[in-house]
Amino acid sequence: MSRGMWFEGDRGVSEVVGVVLLIGMTALLVGGVGVYLFQYGDGVQESGPSFSPSTTYNDSDAGDGQTLRITHRSGDPVPTEEVSLRVQDATTERGTPLEYGGSALERQVGEAFTASETLVLDRTAFTTRSGAPVTGSQHLDLGEAAVRIVWTTENGKRSEIVYEWTGPDRTDA
């Protein structure tokens, strides 16, 4: 046997060893990623519902006062048990602070706020801080108000604002 033939036969062994090592490293990497995902997969955050709103603000000083109409144009149905409507700084035309009653969303749209439905915020959705209803002689003023629809996960660990509107006279964000 010549010397060249002896070394020629060893070359194939080194290529096979390289391929086996490459496959082994790939299997370890895939296994590590799989273990990580199975162990921490619960931590993947679900996102809030897609909500494409259209807002109409009526700044009337007559009748019942101002109104805000929020129409769900398109997107996911928003279950009302997963969201809360939050209203800050609503007042009467004389500056009397008002509290949002908390039930306008559920009362007007039911179990889910679906596409083409409209939520109307008018004086009937509010009470005075003492709990008295807003009477016909008091006009709603939303000029400095902030309105948000906030989605919260079932476990309450995460929330997301899916809708936000601020009145034209509001000075802070």
TrEMBL record:
Protein's UniProt keywords contain Chaperone: no
InterPro entries per the UniProt record, alphabetical: Flagellin/pilin_N_arc, Pilin_N_archaeal
Keyword vocabulary terms for this entry: Cell projection, Cilium, Flagellum, Membrane, Transmembrane, Transmembrane helix
Signal sequence, renumbered to the chain: none
Domain Archaeal Type IV pilin N-terminal: 11-91
Segments passing through the bilayer: 16-38
Keyword Transcription: no
Name by which UniProt lists this protein: Flagellin N-terminal-like domain-containing protein
Protein source organism: Halorientalis persicus
